Inverse folding.
């Protein structure tokens, strides 16, 4: 079977065999089979290294995106949502009072919505100040069950492939939409923050209770907003020697 998967990526082949190995282990633990078969090892690695950009480059790319598509793309930059997740957002998923959003569903197979996320779980995440402004703008005079972001050219919600195409065509960057938004968001965020905060904000780990989520929202929002603040050390040679001051420059 391994040899019949030659037209599949090495990563996919490894995942398929790992799933089969898990299935056989499950049968072994149940007593359905008495021995585990030997599994061949897939050699090599064809996975590609993700690239990230800083927020200055993000701003430059945004300036080139047509107005009709700019807000959902900037929203991804501010929240770290996947393209499929941001396109599937409804107005009712935005909690204006607490400045949070509920990520409950995503697009799969191009144009089908699955009522769960990639990790088959639902989560709550904070809105940065800019993300809240964008969401508030697109909630005006909309029913709670309407899409948050509507393509003005079709009158329907955006499909992820539309945003992918617009980014590829206009951004003038050699990074894909995922790298320029979600991956860059996480890379910017992790530089000055605790890894557990990154995991919570990106949705890489389970979150235990709704109450714990509520208590963490303000801290996570402040941490997300802080990724645009750069610390610069400037030596003061004309006043007091051997002293430095810290200037906080907001991006």
């Amino acid at each position: 079977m391994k040899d019949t998967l030659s037209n599949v990526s090495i990563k996919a082949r490894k995942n398929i065999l790992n799933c089969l190995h898990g299935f056989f282990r499950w049968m072994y633990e149940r007593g359905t089979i008495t021995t585990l078969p030997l599994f061949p090892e897939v050699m090599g690695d064809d996975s590609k290294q993700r690239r990230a950009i800083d927020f200055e480059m993000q701003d430059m790319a945004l300036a080139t995106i047509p107005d009709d598509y700019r807000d959902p793309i900037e929203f991804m930059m501010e929240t770290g949502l996947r393209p499929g997740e941001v396109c599937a957002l409804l107005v009712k998923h935005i909690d204006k009072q607490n400045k949070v959003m509920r990520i409950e569903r995503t697009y799969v197979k191009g144009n089908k919505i699955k009522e769960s996320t990639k990790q088959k779980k639902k989560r709550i995440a904070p809105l940065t100040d800019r993300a809240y402004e964008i969401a508030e703008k697109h909630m005006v005079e909309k029913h709670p069950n309407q899409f948050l972001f509507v393509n003005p050219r079709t009158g329907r919600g955006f499909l992820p492939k539309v945003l992918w195409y617009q980014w590829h065509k206009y951004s003038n960057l050699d990074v894909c939409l995922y790298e320029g938004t979600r991956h860059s968001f996480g890379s910017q965020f992790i530089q000055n923050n605790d890894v557990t905060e990154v995991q919570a904000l990106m949705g890489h780990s389970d979150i235990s209770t709704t109450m714990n989520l509520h208590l963490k929202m303000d801290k996570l929002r402040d941490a997300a907003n802080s990724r645009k603040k750069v610390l610069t050390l400037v030596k003061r040679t004309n006043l007091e020697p051997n002293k430095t001051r810290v200037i906080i420059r907001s991006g």
About this structure: Confidence is low (pLDDT under 50) at residues 206-216, 231-251. Strands lie at 94-95, 100-103, 106-108, 112-114, 123-126, 150-151, 156-157, 229-235, 244-250.
